[in-house]
């Protein structure tokens, strides 16, 4: 098992090296020079240096005067020495802005993922065990609705019902009007109250695909020969479903769970924008459209690391669920 994990980590490090090179190359090859825009705006300030002097200084500061390969290794060294630079758009250190926004998106993503797992997987199992019944058709309709509904439409519908008609939640924002007058616990509850609709939106959009995936894989396992043998031996249906069939259904589900790790940290751009939630998704969008290269490169590299980490976790879980994987 240890050799299997070490080999997977070695592969992940090699892949990360080339992924970071691709990210750096893309940023260096952008058709618009944002350094020129910054230099032009700084040169227009009173008693400032000329445009050419600012261009020379900024180009040297961000290693843009070096070739792509040389500049990449300089940036790589700075990255792994935890020197991430300052954000051009937010005018604060990259890591500070990232730290201020990432945990809000993580809390939303973790809550939505937890609800997705406890809702979608049981419903998928029930639909598979009651194939072609009214229950199966009802669950399938709910799953297809969740898959088909656009995020902006669902969010607008939830806001219309729960905010406009019922008045249970605010239309947008993370805090209420009297947030500053509340105690620490009251502020926590106020933020949690404002996150209910965004989390509900993400959950409804996500459960459909996982529900269908669980149902499809469960049906495939339930039709296997060893399941029919277990039933012929008189094993109870509950043990057949939850001990024999579901254990083998876990193998493909591990892919979904492992692949969900980057989503916990990448944020939900559309949802955060519609509800005016200052999470990492909306923040990274602002950075990219404004040409904030330091923040964009850090964010893309972080997501790449999370993706590789999710794949590594999936590989390890494969070996735990099915020992044949590590032997092969």
Order of helices and strands: HHHHHHHHHHHHHHHH
Q: Choose one word for the global shape.
A: flat
- Architecture of the largest domain, CATH level 2? Orthogonal Bundle
**N- to C-terminal distance:** 12 Å
CATH class of the largest domain: Mainly Alpha
Tally of helical segments: 16
Quickly count the domains: 2
CATH superfamily caption of the largest domain: MetI-like
Question: For this entry, what is the oligomeric state of its chains?
Answer: single chain
Strand content: under 5%
The CATH topology of the largest domain turns out to be MetI-like fold
Give me the secondary-structure category: mainly alpha
Rg over C-alpha atoms, rounded to the nearest angstrom: 25 Å
Residue-averaged pLDDT, rounded?
83
Describe the protein in words.
By secondary structure, the protein is mainly α. It folds into two domains: 2-80; 95-327, MetI-like (MetI-like fold), CATH 1.10.3720. The protein has 16 helices and no strands. It has helices at residues 2-28, 34-43, 51-61, 68-80, 94-129, 134-148, 151-165, 184-194, 196-222, 225-232, 237-259, 261-266, 269-274, 280-289, 293-321, 324-327. The protein is flat, with a radius of gyration of 25 Å.
């Amino acid at each position: 098992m240890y050799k299997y994990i070490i080999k997977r980590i070695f592969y992940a490090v090699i892949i990360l090296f080339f992924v970071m090179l691709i990210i750096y190359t893309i940023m260096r090859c952008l058709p618009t020079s944002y350094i020129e825009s910054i230099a032009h705006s700084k040169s227009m300030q009173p008693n400032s240096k000329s445009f050419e002097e600012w261009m020379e200084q900024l180009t040297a500061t961000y290693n843009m005067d070096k070739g792509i390969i040389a500049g990449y290794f300089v940036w790589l060294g700075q990255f792994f020495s935890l020197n991430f630079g300052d954000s051009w758009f937010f005018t604060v250190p990259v890591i500070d802005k990232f730290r201020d926004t990432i945990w809000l998106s993580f809390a939303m993503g973790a809550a939505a993922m937890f609800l997705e797992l406890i809702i979608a997987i049981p419903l998928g199992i029930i639909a598979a065990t009651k194939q072609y019944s009214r229950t199966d058709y009802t669950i399938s309709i709910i799953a297809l609705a969740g898959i088909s509904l656009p995020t902006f439409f669902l969010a607008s519908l939830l806001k219309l019902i729960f905010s406009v008609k019922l008045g249970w939640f605010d239309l947008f924002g993370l805090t209420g009007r009297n947030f500053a007058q509340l105690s620490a616990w009251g502020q926590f509850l106020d933020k949690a109250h404002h996150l209910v609709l965004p989390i509900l939106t993400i959950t409804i959009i996500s459960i459909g695909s996982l529900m269908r995936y669980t149902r499809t894989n469960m049906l495939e396992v339930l039709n296997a020969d060893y399941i029919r043998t277990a039933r012929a031996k008189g094993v109870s249906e509950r043990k057949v479903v939850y001990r024999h069939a579901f254990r083998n259904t876990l193998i493909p589900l591990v892919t979904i769970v492992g692949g969900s790790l980057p989503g916990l940290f990448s944020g939900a751009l559309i949802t955060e924008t519609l509800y005016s939630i200052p999470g990492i998704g909306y923040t990274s969008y602002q950075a990219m459209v404004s040409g904030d290269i330091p923040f964009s490169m850090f964010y893309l590299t972080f997501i790449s690391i999370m993706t590789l980490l999710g794949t590594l976790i999936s590989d390890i879980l494969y070996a735990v669920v099915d020992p044949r994987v590590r032997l092969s």
